[in-house]
Design goal:
Layout lengths: L19 H7 L4 E7 L2 H20 L4 E10 L4 H14 L3 E7 L2 H8 L4 H4 L2 H17 L2
Parallel strand pairs: 1-2, 2-3
Length: about 140
């Protein structure tokens, strides 16, 4: 199936809980990149993600943890201001500098089957462009 695809990157959007389909995908990919919603629940998920990566790496030694990036961030709230520096310290280079803000315009663009770039929300475009550039740097 994928031998017919001519692409540099194929992105699989998998559930953050690990069911069989997610684990199957991890056996065949080169990189793992995880959006991380900054909340008590998702921070606990972080430990599980790292554990799954470690276990999957035994079967797929080429699998690299590319990193984590924060999503649905509102820097006006104290929990983000406190938690993001802690994550940067704990995860080091695995925590991306890119942050995707809580942005209703992004949600609206998805409902209209438009990309962030087509919807022309400048802040979202800049954030996703920054994330794309970081991914490209880390995969070279």
């Amino acid at each position: 199936m994928f031998s017919e695809v001519d692409a540099d990157f194929i992105l699989f959007d998998c559930p953050q809980y690990y069911e069989l389909s997610t684990l199957n995908i991890l056996y065949f990919v080169d990189y793992m990149l995880c959006p991380l919603e900054i909340s008590p629940k998702s921070l606990n998920t972080l430990k599980r993600i790292l554990k799954v990566h470690e276990q999957t790496g035994k079967v797929n030694p080429k699998l690299k943890m590319l990193g984590f990036f924060a999503i649905r961030v509102d820097m006006r709230k104290r929990r983000f201001k406190k938690t993001i520096p802690v994550l940067k310290k704990e995860l080091g280079e695995r925590f991306f500098n890119s942050i995707i803000s809580q942005n209703e315009e992004v949600v609206n663009s998805q409902g209209k089957s438009q990309t962030v770039y087509e919807y022309e929300d400048m802040k979202a475009m800049q954030e996703f462009s920054h994330l794309t550039n970081e991914i490209l740097v880390k995969t070279q």
